Amino acid sequence: MADLNLAREIAALFQLPAPLKDAEIYPGGHINDSYLISCASTEHPRFLLQRLNADVFPRPDQIMENIRRVSEHVQSQSHTSAMAKSESTFLNLVVTKAGQPYTRCDGGDVWRMYEFIEGSIMQESAASPAEARQAGLAFGEFQVLLADLPGPDLHEIIEDFHDTPKRLENLRKVVDADPLQRAEYAKREIKFALDFASNGNLIVDGMRDGTLARRTVHNDAKMSNVLLDCNTGQRLCVIDLDTVMPGSVLYDFGDMMRTMLCRAPEDEIDLSKVKVDMDMFQALADGYLRGARAILNQAEMDMLVFSGILITIETGSRFLADHLQGDHYFRTHRRNQNLDRARCQFELARSMMAQRADMEARLAVLAAAPATATATAE
Ligand code: GN1
Ligand code: MG
């Protein structure tokens, strides 16, 4: 309740078009806090107010500068790109009454505000192949739009964010220290993650030796970071640009596989529900290739399916390390939730490994089909 009062107070510092009516908690996300703010305007009745987690994001100035550069670049291509043409390619930022992109509350927490898109829906995992196809298309187009972002590089918001070997090394250290004596109950999960270490370097090595391109990518390309039109099901907008920075397209495709191939939630306890749905894969790969095929090189194409396994195990390892350390990074709502998230990721990765040859065969067929001329095919 106190938080809602605070959210109302902070919302009043922004340039709302009409008097503020209400604030409610907006669910989703493991790091920042979000609130839905309503006001008395008929044209723009609702806004998204976010408090950035200062431990995870200590440099909001760099985040907002990255977002500004990315948005301006996409807008500048609106004459050539269907996605960039849409007014809502990204959420519109609402500035403070002082004209600033965010406000710092008493020298502490950082808050920012976006216009909410009426009629949009956000899904934690894809509910149908059509949704997976739309999300794949949205992130594919996103990567293409940013492929020619002029230098300098965007700020690296979180160092080594998708450096899988470092993530696994961190897990190993946490297991060794085992500060809460939780490792005993997660032996199977720890073994599964650490056994992957021999393959964990494949993407970072490819990036280092130049076979995999270093590009501007989203870095958190999960289903819930694409808004869909609730009437047509079409993609509206890619959201959560906090970790847009240099990386590999594989980080994004891997995260899409992680969150779109299975309808079960990220923390599903009934692991029999956690498996790859091949129709979802087919649709995701089809949508993604329609969006991004034009920029992908052969080494990237060859590693697309593997990237799903890698990112799913990397994310599971992060949940597991956080569980062993006492859940300080990913917000939890119940006991052992991070352990359940890790178990679910590892089960999904096992299923991806079992289906890998089938997924690769389907991808080869899709890749051989003539590339569509534009990304407007749906
Ligand atoms: C975090 O907070 P959210 O839900 O946008 C995390 C991602 C993970 C994701 C797992 C900055 O994203 O890396 O993949 O949880 N973001 C950060 O759902 O660590
Ligand atoms: Mg995020």
Describe the model.
β1 and β2 form a beta hairpin. The protein has 378 residues and is an alpha+beta fold. It is 44% helix and 12% strand. The C terminus is likely disordered. α5 runs parallel beside α10 and α9 crosses α11. The radius of gyration is 20 Å and the shape is globular. Strands 1, 2, 3, 4, 5 and 6 form a 6-stranded antiparallel β-sheet that branches. A 3-stranded antiparallel β-sheet has the order 7-9-10, covered by helices on one side. The protein folds into 2 domains: 83 residues, Phosphorylase Kinase, domain 1 (2-Layer Sandwich), CATH 3.30.200; 247 residues, Aminoglycoside 3'-phosphotransferase, Chain: A, domain 2 (Alpha-Beta Complex). It contains 11 helices and 11 strands. The structure holds 2-acetamido-2-deoxy-1-O-phosphono-alpha-D-glucopyranose and magnesium ion (MG). Magnesium ion binds next to loops.
